[in-house]
Design goal:
The protein has about 300 residues and is an all-alpha fold. The protein is built from 14 helices and no strands. Helix 5 packs across helix 6.
């Protein structure tokens, strides 16, 4: 039954070509049938998205990456540090557990679940704290994919402005790309370039966390897809592929994106969502609203 539903939902996903629908259908799958924890759709979502990002790099020119990064990199760095400290401060005011606040700060400031998973061993976070943080960020990211393109159109944002906005305001790379893909191809290129700039902060975050919490056995957890994305951009610059090749790479990227978002939607943990309490949810929402407003001002 579950495989028939997957085929039906994926067919609808590719027919619509809409990122938000892909995510929602994945969530619908998780609520329709029981999926084991090791089910393939739960295991490959992030890998599919990362592979899609690499293919996208093959269609982005190096001068574009340099131009966008040069203009926004100082703002990205300031954004990451300020957001991280803001979450910790508001979390302390609300009385949220220190390590749970630290996880939410990592996810909000850098790249959602990837950052939280990377930093959790460094701070020796409790499994229930990681599950709570992941579930909260998942909910906010699902809302972002659905609402941000609508808000961007309502505000009359350009492709460059919208791509910059979602790269700063949305947590996970998957949701950044999902929102941007609904808005337009140029928005995707801008969003991916800037979002990967945020993701690079995982390295200093894990190093600092390992030192601060004195856990010397933790690993860096550097996302290798960033390296492959950079190599793909470099190859694009050296080989100057034809327009047909670039369009093919963009098509492959979209296929991976839609399938990956569908798989990520299927990862939703119904029991974990029931464990979410008001304080950490309020912390994540309040800071996110501030970030949304601040990132709009930055762009």
């Amino acid at each position: 039954m579950r495989y028939i539903l997957i085929l039906i939902f994926l067919s609808i996903t590719f027919w619509t070509g809409h990122a938000a629908i892909a995510l929602l259908l994945g969530i619908a799958l998780s609520y329709s049938v029981h999926l084991p924890k090791d089910f393939f759709a739960k295991r490959i979502g992030s890998k599919l998205l990362q592979t899609g990002i690499v293919f996208l790099g093959g269609s982005i020119s190096l001068p574009t990456v340099v131009e966008i990064s040069g203009a926004y990199l100082p703002w990205i760095s300031l954004f990451v540090v300020t957001t991280f400290l803001l979450v910790l401060t508001v979390g302390k005011i609300l009385g949220v557990d220190k390590k749970l606040s630290y996880l939410l700060a990592s996810g909000t400031a850098i790249c959602g679940g990837t950052a939280m998973a990377a930093v959790a061993p460094s701070i020796r976070a409790k499994p229930e704290d990681l599950i709570t943080a992941m579930s909260i960020i998942f909910i906010l990211n699902a809302l972002a994919v659905i609402l941000f393109p609508f808000i961007g159109s309502l505000l009359g944002l350009s492709q460059l402005e919208f791509g910059s906005w979602v790269a700063l305001a949305v947590h996970d790379t998957a949701s950044v790309i999902g929102s941007a893909s609904i808005f337009g191809e140029e928005a995707v290129e801008v969003a991916v370039t800037l979002k990967l700039g945020r993701t690079l902060w995982i390295v200093p975050l894990v190093l600092f966390s390992a030192w601060y919490f004195r856990n010397k056995s933790s690993r860096l957890g550097f996302p290798l897809f960033i390296l492959f994305f950079s190599l793909a951009v470099l190859l694009n610059f050296l080989l100057s592929p034809s327009e047909e090749t670039s369009n093919l790479l963009k098509g492959i990227n979209k296929a991976f994106l839609l399938t990956g978002l569908f798989c990520i939607g299927s990862q939703i943990d119904q029991s974990a969502i029931k464990l979410i309490s008001l304080k950490p949810l309020l912390l994540a929402v309040v800071v996110w609203l501030i970030v949304i407003k601040a990132s709009l001002w930055i762009i």
